[in-house]
Amino acid sequence: MDTPSTSIGPGLGAFIAFFVLAVVLWLLMRNMNGRMRRMAYKEQQRVADLEAREAEREAAERPQRPQDEPVVEPEPEPAQDADRADPAP
């Protein structure tokens, strides 16, 4: 009977191929991480710009009051206490 030898392994070529794949994967992940960071920064800038434009638009649409006129805030409605509530019939 001819039994195959178990001492044969993948060899140096397989190790080099695996090492090259690992280095390429590391480079791809590094590149992707940088791009994701830039995208997040650009998104934050875009949202800040939109909020600034919306605030400017609301300020322009709001009627201007005279500077010497005092600001009067409406009084809040009194809260109804549970003790003073109408009892159920």
Comma- or semicolon-separated keywords:
elongated, 89 residues, 1 helix, single chain, mainly alpha
Could you characterize what this model shows?
This protein is mainly alpha-helical and 89 residues long. The chain is built from one helix and no strands. It has one helix at residues 11-61. The termini are far apart.
**General form:** elongated
Number of strands: 0
- Please tally the helical runs, counting DSSP H or I stretches of 4 or more residues: 1
SSE pattern: H
Please tell me how large the radius of gyration is: 36 Å
State the major sheet.
none
Average pLDDT over all residues: 82
Q: Structural class from helices and strands? A: mainly alpha
Percent range of helical residues: 55-70%
Strand content: under 5%
Unreliable stretches, pLDDT < 50, 5 or more residues?
none
Distance between the termini: 102 Å
Write the layout of secondary structure elements.
Elements: H1 11-61
What would a concise description of this structure say?
The chain is an all-alpha fold and 89 residues long. It has one helix at 11-61.
